[in-house]
Amino acid sequence: MNELKYIIVIPKGMTKDSARAIIFNGLLVHLHIWKSCPEGFKLNSAGFMNIGPSIYDVKCYGKSESLHVDSDPEFDKEIILRTLGCMPLNHFDV
Q: How does DSSP classify residue 33?
């Protein structure tokens, strides 16, 4: 399995319901990806993830040492699945 990294961002002025995931190769550094984000986003969490064998089998864990922020495994998994189009946008309203 290929280890991936991710950052969960929230547009400034929005709630956690608007969070989205930025998913990238595990060889890259969280901080470098965060610095490439446009202004207007708040950093929520960051960590590592594995997917498989099903797209729904997402495991989030760890923390970003370069950003000094922990993962939030259950919340992050939901945001990643929503970002990938596997969950409805109003999932948190149910």
A: H
**Residue 43 forms beta bridges with which residues?**
9
CB count within 10 Å of CB 31 equals 15
Q: State the CB neighbour count (10 A cutoff) for residue 20.
A: 16
DSSP 56: T
Task: Provide the pLDDT confidence category of residue 94 given band limits of 50, 70 and 90.
Answer: very low
Q: What is the pTM of this model?
A: 0.87
Is residue 49 within 8 A of residue 58, CB to CB? The reply is yes
pLDDT digits (tens, 9 = 90+) for 36-84: 998 999 999 999 999 988 888 999 999 999 999 999 999 999 999 999 8
* Cα(13)–Cα(81) distance, integer angstroms: 23
